[in-house]
Amino acid sequence: MKYKISLIVVLSFFLGQSQTATSITNIQTPNLDETSGLLFYNNKLFTFNDSGGQAEIYEINSSNGSIVRTITINNATNVDWEDITQDATHIYIGDIGNNNGNRTDLKIYKISKSDFDDADNIATAETISYSYANQTTFNSLPNNNNWDAEGLISFGDKLLIFTKNWVNNMVNVYSIPKISGSYSAQFVSTYNTNGLITGADISFNEDVIYLTGYSSSQAPFMYTIHNISASNLDIFSGNVSPKITNIVPLGNQVEAISLFEITPTKHRLYISNEKYTFTSGPISITFPAKLWFIELNADTFLSLEDIANNHFVLYPNPCETAINSSVIIDEVTIYDNFGKIIFQNKNVNSISLENLVAGVYFAQIKLENQFYFKKIIKK
Cα separations (Å) of 208 from 229, 267, 300? Predict the structure, then answer.
């Protein structure tokens, strides 16, 4: 009886966690149990496995998680692939995982998009090798070093690498050129994330960066960085959001993030987690590899914080003709300033205010059997 109660408590703890992202599907198992990077390119979603996997990139069906195409990188080895990024002409795969902190063969594979798109499903990569300029010792310290890395983005004419600091739970950012060769990666920025960064992506115009990771308790989180100076590689000198701690339920080990720009200001973020098994005494719970998404208003800096605290955000506010919701609302009731019901609707993520006069209104939102009240200003 005691065992059954414990199991119920644990299940309730994990499965009952609130979340910001919406679950799309499980990812094909066992082929993609170790999914580690995500790329949204040419209206398609791509991923790969991390350490010890094949030197292959998989196009996946974003609706059901199945593999629909496999691209082999014929001159590469997957020592520990951890992230993937792109610019206008190339795709970059980060073989940057370094759990022990003693690798001397860190590299990034650079693939032309024309080669990647070729019908033979085989691509050849250029190699960008690097070491960290300020690393002086190479002792093997499993999960106890600051030289591991799982985040990679393209930024101007540089590649930026985000470390996974096991020792101090911070992130360091290093810069290397995009040209094939061997380099000393330069330290350019740092931030106390109070957790391990496992994925990164950047908007097309390079003014918003998204970071994902998890804490020592496996709790997933996200940060955003806005207003980044194009001339300054110290990216954390931009506006860094508060830590967003409920992007997916606890137990889902977030590994990757990829951005799809619906419009320049409306972003969809795809997030993946690898297969993870939680064990406590006789209890064992397996969380499958999974794909999630979030849609948000990218030009509203506080929108993600609002979602984290309130499960949704209404934008733009003030508005002219309509106000949108970051999630589908179960039921909405709009009141005027005197408490009179103006209209009601169900299962919507956009509320038309076109026929209302300018002024202040109030929205009663029903979402997952909870009620929220928001002030709306019609211009």
Answer: 10, 10, 11
User: Is residue 304 scored above 50 in pLDDT?
Assistant: no
Q: Which domains does the chain have, with CATH numbers?
A: 18-310 (2.115.10), 315-378 (2.60.40)
Burial class (CB in 10 A: 0-12, 13-18, 19+), 101: buried
Please give the average per-residue pLDDT across 135-160, as a whole number: 97
Q: What share of the chain is helix, strand, coil (3-state, %, to 5)?
A: 10, 50, 40
Whether the bond into 177 is cis, omega within 30 of 0? no
Nearest to 168, CA basis, from 150, 145, 140, 141:
145
The pTM assigned to this predicted structure is: 0.78
Q: In sequence order, what are the residues at sequence separation of 6 or more whose Cβ sits closer than 8 angstroms to the Cβ of residue 11?
A: 285
Q: How many Å apart are CA 242 and CA 140, to the nearest integer?
A: 34
Cα 286 from Cα 278, distance rounded (Å):
6
Q: What is the pLDDT of residue 300?
A: 54
Instruction: Name which of 160-169, 221-230, 364-373 the model is least confident about.
Output: 364-373
Q: How many helices (H) and strands (E) does the chain have?
A: 3, 28
Distance CA 97, CA 253 (A): 16
Of residues 297 and 194, the one with the higher pLDDT is 194
Using the predicted structure, report yes or no on whether residue 361 has a pLDDT greater than 90: no
Cα 14 to Cα 324: distance, rounded to the nearest angstrom: 30
4: helix, strand or coil: helix
- Vertex 254, ends 250 and 255: CA angle to 5°? 165
Q: Give me the mean pLDDT over the 184-204 stretch.
A: 96
Q: Note the pLDDT of residue 13.
A: 44
The torsion region of residue 369 among left (phi > 0), alpha (psi -120 to 50) and beta comes to left
Any idea of the CA torsion for 276, 277, 279, 283, to the nearest 10 degrees? 140
Rounded CA separation 74/77 (Å): 9
The residues, ordered by sequence, that sit 6+ positions from 165 with a Cβ below 8 Å of its Cβ are 146, 148, 171, 172, 196
